[in-house]
Amino acid sequence: MRRRHDDLLHSGIGMTSQRTRERLIQRLCEEGLSSAPVLEVIRRTPRHLFVDEALAHRAYEDTALPIGHNQTISQPYMVGRMTELLLAGGPLDKVLEIGTGSGYQTAVLAQLVERVFSVERIQTLQERAKERLLELKVRNVVFRWGDGWEGWPALAPYNGIMVTAAAPDVPPALLEQLAPGGRLVIPVGSGDEQQLLLIVREADGFRRHVLETVRFVPLLQGSLF
Ligand code: SAH
């Protein structure tokens, strides 16, 4: 019995061990992520703290996982990919994130840019994300409970905007709140699968790049307790 208990304990620790995290990083490299700073931040961010304890053993798999309220923590590949796309134009000081969810993508972003402004429509998810970031001593994030369709106009413009839920069309408010040269990364489409878009605000308008097919939960309207 004793032995069995120890084994279980050990395997539990193994799931979140450094070696398990290294395997994830290796997999992300194989899938095409290439930014050393982004990979380093993913390596050192404890994703198991952003999911329920019962799912912690799966936290370093490259997969989305449920976080309650019909929402999911994004797949690590997607977190890395979207972060790379946002940062590819150079350093960013002000980033708006729509869809805080578990706060995992927020924590990754916050370690790579100066300030993150993060909007979430489900208050209980937002409260938990806030606690996690406090615990991890991530301090350069400001949270807002509200509807991300409207962005966060009072603090605009932003050099980068990342949306982690799929919209049928690009919300016009987000385009308006993008600074000149600013970059918006957003999944767009209304079915189960969407297209990941990068939109760059240039002197003569918005340039759209269509990147790859993705699967996100929908960007909904209004806010909820
Ligand atoms: N990046 C998050 C992903 C969470 S899933 C993570 O890795 O944990 C998408 C999130 O977007 C959900 O938390 C959902 O509640 C939120 N969301 C959906 N529509 C929204 C809206 N209109 N405004 C703000 N947040 C929204």
UniProtKB/TrEMBL annotation:
It is found in: Cytoplasm. It catalyses: [protein]-L-isoaspartate + S-adenosyl-L-methionine = [protein]-L-isoaspartate alpha-methyl ester + S-adenosyl-L-homocysteine. One of its GO terms (molecular function) is protein-L-isoaspartate (D-aspartate) O-methyltransferase activity. It comes from the Bacteria. The gene is pcm. It comes from Azotobacter chroococcum. Belongs to the methyltransferase superfamily. L-isoaspartyl/D-aspartyl protein methyltransferase family. This is Protein-L-isoaspartate O-methyltransferase. Catalyzes the methyl esterification of L-isoaspartyl residues in peptides and proteins that result from spontaneous decomposition of normal L-aspartyl and L-asparaginyl residues. It plays a role in the repair and/or degradation of damaged proteins. One of its GO terms (cellular component) is cytoplasm. The active site is at residue 74. InterPro entries: PCMT (IPR000682), SAM-dependent_MTases_sf (IPR029063). GO terms for biological process: methylation; protein repair.
